[in-house]
Specification:
Helices cover 9% and strands 29% of the residues. The chain is mainly beta. Strands 1, 2, 3, 4, 5, 6, 17, 18, 19 and 20 form a ten-stranded mixed sheet that branches.
């Protein structure tokens, strides 16, 4: 059964007010939603965790939808027939900021937001697609709506382990995910006695138990009280938040282990990128019979490249390692990938209910998955998981990739910081 891709364009407009970027000319931007349908039992989806537990339609297909945006030459004949895919980091568009010296924006429209026009003057088509399925709406983030995995007779459940570090005094509530913008795995029980909360000062210190009567699963809401009470607060039971009335002590590592439910099929983040880029590169019409927007005027994409910063660079390595750089017909998806300040390993993406692997190192939001291979194929992490800060070489790496990675060229830039200019 063939995977299906349908692009619904909801907005199409002249970028930068129709400004002419050198000999390439004007650009236009397309904004919309990409709809995907796949056979959970298909060979192209083999190995996607919990996909067999996703709901399906009458044809046996699982459905999911993500935001996309395309920035392309208004006259395709004047472009360079190259697609440059930006793996939006945590749902944010970053490519124009880093390649064009443009101000950060999740909705670039103006000439100022084109920066110095570097990519446009060279004729690249730039594309974005949501791939991270656990992001919540806000700040213009790209969102991917994924199916929830369920057993036949009830929810999927399992242990989740999360760490919280308050960076200032007065913080009493965290989402269970640890990040406001990231969906939490809901707890099965609101009873803190059925979970375990500990704290420690440093990563390898002995854990101190936090008694269940000193915390609860709840959030705090504020407002104005009646009868001249001024500001008031309410503690509301929540299956997605942790609350400590006395506050989280700044700098201490709090670790929560609890039983959660309803995991998303996050591994489909690899499938959406593979099928979306493959369609833009090789497809003529989508599943609804609409013309591929990059196949207008008899022009097609000849080469496709991908760039990923930080966690998306690790995602890129995982994408290639798991074989997704070959599409459902065995054709190459990306000719080259560029992981940027991405540490030394791969992305922890294709998992089920488990939030993090058991050996996560406090203070880092990821653990390297091995093999973390170099050009000679040796495992640089020695067969073990390791914190990215311990083994990472912060470098700019260009990896020419087919269905399998067969050669690499390294361009090392020394002394570069992980944060972008202006980042906190």
């Amino acid at each position: 059964m063939t995977n299906r891709v349908t692009l619904s364009v909801v907005e199409r407009f002249a970028f930068a007010g129709g400004y002419e970027f050198g000999t390439v000319g004007a650009y236009e931007r397309l904004v919309g939603r990409a709809h995907f349908a796949v056979d959970p039992a298909g060979a192209a989806q083999r190995g996607i965790t919990d996909l067999d537990k996703a709901p399906t339609d009458g044809d046996g297909l699982a459905h999911f939808t993500g935001d996309f945006s395309i920035l392309k030459p208004a006259d395709p004949a004047r472009g360079n027939c190259r697609l440059f895919f930006d793996y939006g980091n945590r749902g944010n568009k970053r490519m124009l900021q880093f390649f064009n010296d443009a101000p950060a924006s999740n909705d670039p429209r103006t000439l100022a937001q084109a920066g110095n026009g570097f990519l446009m003057r060279r004729g690249y088509t730039v594309a974005w697609l949501a791939w991270q399925g656990d992001l919540l709406p806000g700040n213009g983030r790209l969102l991917l709506d994924l199916p929830v995995a369920r057993e036949r007779h009830g929810p999927v459940t399992g242990l989740v382990r999360t760490e919280y570090i308050a960076d200032r005094s007065g913080i009493t509530v965290f989402p269970l995910s640890g990040r406001v913008s990231v969906r939490s795995h809901p707890t099965v029980s609101l009873d803190p006695r059925e979970a375990r909360l500990t704290r420690r000062r440093y990563p390898y210190d002995e854990r101190e138990a936090v008694p269940p009567e000193n915390w609860c699963f709840a959030r705090v809401e504020g407002g104005t009280g009646l009868d001249n009470q001024g500001a008031v607060q309410a503690v509301v039971p929540s299956d997605s938040h942790i609350y400590i009335p006395g506050g989280f002590e700044p700098g201490w590592i709090y670790e929560l282990v609890y039983t959660a439910r309803d995991p998303l099929v996050l591994g489909l983040g690899h499938v959406v990128v593979r099928d979306f880029v493959s369609f833009l590169r090789y497809g003529k019409e989508d599943a609804a019979g609409r013309l591929n927007p990059l196949c207008e005027r008899d022009r097609t994409i000849e080469k496709a490249y991908a760039w990923g910063r930080s966690q998306t660079g690790r995602y890129l390595r995982d994408f290639v390692y798991r074989g997704f750089n070959a599409d459902t017909a065995g054709r190459k998806v990306f000719d080259g990938i560029l992981p940027h300040v991405a540490g030394a390993g791969r992305m922890w993406l294709n998992h089920g209910i488990v939030k993090e692997p058991p050996d996560i190192v406090a203070g880092s939001d990821y653990t390297i998955l091995v093999p973390a291979v170099d050009a000679d194929g040796n495992d640089r992490a020695g067969g073990q998981s390791a914190d990215g800060g311990c083994t990472a070489r912060h470098l700019l790496r260009l990896e020419f990739a087919g269905a399998r990675l067969w050669s690499r060229r390294h361009a090392r830039i020394l002394g570069q910081l992980h944060p972008a200019p202006g980042d906190p």
